[in-house]
Amino acid sequence: xxxxxxxxxxxxxxxxxxxxxxxxxxxxxxxxxxxxxxxxxxxxxxxxxxxxxxxxxxxxxxxxxxxxxxxxxxxxxxxxxxxxxxxxxxxxxxxxxxxxxxxxxxxxxxxxxxxxxxxxxxxxxxxxxxxxxxxxxxxxxxxxxxxxxxxxxxxxxxxxxxxxxxxxxxxxxxxxxxxxxxxxxxxxxxxxxxxxxxxxxxxxxxxxxxxxxxxxxxxxxxxxxxxxxxxxxxxxxxxxxxxxxxxxxxxxxxxxxxxxxxxxxxxxxxxxxxxxxxxxxxxxxxxxxxxxxxxxxxxxxxxxxxxxxxxxxxxxxxxxxxxxxxxxxxxxxxxxxxxxxxxxxxxxxxxxxxxxxxxxxxxxxxxxxxxxxxxxxxxxxxxxxxxxxxxxxxxxxxxxxxxxxxxxxxxxxxxxxxxxxxxxxxxxxxxxxxxxxxxxxxxxxxxxxxxxxxxxxxxxxxxxxxxxxxxxxxxxxxxxxxxxxxxxxxxxxxxxxxxxxxxxxxxxxxxxxxxxxxxxxxxxxxxxxxxxxxxxxxxxxxxxxxxxxxxxxxxxxxxxxxxxxxxxxxxxxxxxxxxxxxxxxxxxxxxxxxxxxxxxxxxxxxxxxxxxxxxxxxxxxxxxxxxxxxxxxxxxxxxxxxxxxxxxxxxxxxxxxxxxxxxxxxxxxxxxxxxxxxxxxxxxxxxxxxxxxxxxxxxxxxxxxxxxxxxxxxxxxxxxxxxxxxxxxxxxxxxxxxxxxxxxxxxxxxxxxxxxxxxxxxxxxxxxxxxxxxxxxxxxxxxxxxxxxxxxxxxxxxxxxxxxxxxxxxxxxxxxxxxxxxxxxxxxxxxxxxxxxxxxxx
Length: 842
Hints:
75% of the residues lie in helices and 0% in strands. By secondary structure, it is mainly alpha-helical.
């Protein structure tokens, strides 16, 4: 039994009694006082000096007269001293002849500590009859309850707790009984009844240690049940009661922090724990509060602050028992906060500081994830980390996950051969694992990425054959179709897509397969068949991304089939059906802009193109839309607006493949404004910077035009224009109409230089004759060639008329008539007029 005196008082009493005993022994012949021996023994018993207590009690028995109260008391106390020394059999031997309540009780205690629980109940049986009102009755019932709990007879223990509560009178044991009763009810899952018992305890003894423990337990129960306001009401008095019990306040604050966290009040939680740290009266509680505080900071996404609070415990020497788990928690918190770099550092610290196998497995796994999730993933290092985790983990599920990540990292690092080896290992060692099917699929994908299409198709078919109804079977068939399509085996691809749609009717890939089916038909020029695929897709899966693509392609099919009005209506319908589409709306708007441009509705076209460029700035069509908007503005003679579009294009998209064309259009608009010198600089930029562009010949023409225009003030400009036009005339890549245009303009320059004979020869030899002598009919394919041929002929005729060479003029005009160009009728009328006026016979 533990007495209620303080430690200081116990030690003082022990010292006085020991001294008294020594003095008694030192006086020859002096008789020892049994009461003094009892007093000394009790003090020694309370302070754990069990051997000294035993000696005092034995001496007391020797000196006390038979039947004296001190003798009986010493016997029971001697049993207590033996109990302190764990001499349970000696206790039984000592107490066996006795039948007093105390002897029965302490025999039961000895049996309990010897784990002879059936003998405990037998020893305590007399208390129900002979000793029911004895001072040991309460203790006997508590011991009986403990015995039932040890043997798993919870219901019996609960009955005893209830009996003890209903016994008459008050005693401190009843408070402990209520607390243990409530704890047992909690362990038995009888939470509601436990709350009732705890409320009784709190109402009866709020200021006692048991009462405060009851408040803490009730607060935890309420919090775990989501009764947060009720939990606060129970726990806050423990905090407000300070002083005198800071320990209870610290415990209450820790529980309250959990309540606040559950209510999504992380700041209140950390404030409560910060207060707990400040109030902790001893190092044990301070450690508990600081660990809770640091962990709460980690959970509240304050990973750096939490790590700082926990660092002393992680780095403690000698090592703190919680240090390994704390380091892993810090690393995980950095990971949850998205700070992969700090997470990797924390996991690496664990690997350098701690040797626990299970912890190292977790650290290697966490390090692998942190390396993968970095802004620039380090796949090779991650694969090595996951491999180490795979080797350390013992649980098959953990090993499978890590080996999968080894393979995935190597796949992401484009180490497809190494990835395939890892996937093969997973399949061989863990064939029944859920991730084995994924490994088979990824293994086939490795073969595809290594440009081994036949192996890939074989492996994908193996995925299907292994589990035709599995989650990867439809994906495997989809990949087979895509591989066949990439190989140009369109019929085989169509067959695979057909098989997928027929076999996996509920597959999420059905819409994508139908889209691919339609696109193959479109590329195969089977526009009506493709249109049917696209319309079916929009009808069956209207909300999918594939349907957006199909809705756009419907318009393309109708446009190619010559049903342009239906195509336009379809695209306008698209804008209503998919207003949020980021991928295909720019394409639809571009087509509508093209339609307006081709119909001469340049204002509407400019609006459409400008809208694309302004809203979809990151779309691949944005620079093309700026170019088209500028061209539409130029058609409206809004040259300044056009120039702004072209300049914006060059500034925003300097690497776009059409920059040379944009510069040409900018130069052409500048030319139209009469700013020829500026235009020449733009054309020269194209010539010098984009020499391989198909806009170079146009740039030479544009430059020549500007030089020709400047020739009115400086005849040397005509010579420069001739040189520029010759670049076009001699270009192997220039189209026939541009070549004929350049040849005509050379003749025009010669006329401006008053070199009329050379001009006539140029017009005749390099414009008229090539057009008339064109066995392949190349010039006839370009309508503009008719214009340059006709203008060259009339320029020669005008020169012949000036020279009064009427017959030569008639012959040139006859060439025009024979050529069958639009000006043929006019040429014939002119011939007739010359002959009539000059009496020239045919």
